[in-house]
Amino acid sequence: MKLVKRSAALVDYGSSDEEDTVAPADVSSEPAPQAADTILPPPKKKLKQLPALPDYLAPKVPVDNPALHQGRRRTTPHVEGQFAAYVYIPVLVEKRSKLYKLLLRIFEAAKRQVPILHPIGFADVVGGLSNTETKEKSNTDAPVPAGVDSVELHISLTRPTFLRAHQRNDFKRAVQKAAKSKRRFAASFATLSELTNDERTRTFLTLEVGAGHDGLKALSDELTPILKSIRQKEFYQDPRFHASIAWALLDGSRVSTPRPVPNPPEHLTHNVRDELKESDDPGSMATASGYDPFPTIPCFPASFVQDLRDEFVGQLVHSGVGMFEAEEVHVRIGKEVSKWRLQD
């Protein structure tokens, strides 16, 4: 059988020069006239803008107004959906106890040397003010009082921590697990110290823990894994557990200050007052008269803490005056406080 071989036709492509010089004979170079009945598209309508929401429907954003908080400023910007939290051991001090009476005497002596000092936790009787007068005239770091007959001091187990909404339950479970893994223990305050916050905007007079330090550190260490998992700072490598009893604003002029102390975020540590009217705003008063409503200091006087130690530490450690039981662990997330008892 004879095979017939077909060759594929080759396509002859002209050069670009030929395309440029040769034009089809049947193509007119004149533009085509536009038909008389061509319909143009209708003009676009301008979209009407919706009216702005009234102020009462707009979400409220916290305003950093130092005039409402004795000159204190928010150290961490507000983030929508983020919750400030901290973990602490509560120390209930009965008002009829020797410790409470000693705290009042310590504060009175401290205020003689540092008049701008603010009390923490026991302002209701400082300066002879009644409970009602204090609520109107004083705004301290004290949490809600534990009861009429006692006040509550805090010993922090974490730095201020910031949680997203979905992290809150995991964080609470970790605190609960830590509390259930440890037994209650005795502890005591052993001395007075000066410490500052991380931002070095405030300095604190504190009762520093002696006995019980190891138990507090064991609890704090239990929280390290959850803090790392949510990318938050763990507690200090060499913590000095304490309860703050007074504070003062720093002016920032001192380069070297005492080591930082963890304190609850600003919006957790104060009782927010009603907004001040413009005429009552201490800031506006300062502008008009030169009066500084929020005086500051570079630091406590050089002999301040030592003078207090010489006068009061002997009484603090005598006959168990500064002793207390670590019985519960609390965590505050936003406005919510959760509590778990240590094992008996």
The geometry reads as: extended
Helix fraction by DSSP (H/I, runs of at least 4): 10-25%
Distance between the termini: 107 Å
Task: Report on the biggest sheet.
Answer: 5 strands, antiparallel
Query: pLDDT under 50 segments (min length 5)?
Result: 7-23, 67-71, 128-145, 265-289
Number of DSSP helical runs: 9
How many strand elements?
10
Strand content: 15-25%
Q: Helices and strands in order, then pairings?
A:
Elements: H1 16-21, E1 82-94, H2 98-113, E2 118-119, H3 131-137, E3 150-156, E4 161-164, H4 168-180, E5 185-196, E6 202-209, H5 213-222, H6 224-229, E7 242-249, H7 266-269, H8 282-289, H9 304-317, E8 323-326, E9 328-333, E10 336-341
Antiparallel strand pairs: 1-3, 1-4, 1-9, 2-7, 5-6, 5-8, 6-7, 9-10
Helix pairs in contact: 2-9
Mind explaining what this structure looks like?
The protein has 344 residues and is α+β, with helices and mostly antiparallel strands. It is built from 9 helices and 10 strands. The strands form 2 sheets. Strands 1, 3, 4, 9 and 10 form a 5-stranded antiparallel β-sheet that branches. The longest helix has 16 residues, at 98-113. It is extended and about 110 Å long. The termini are far apart.
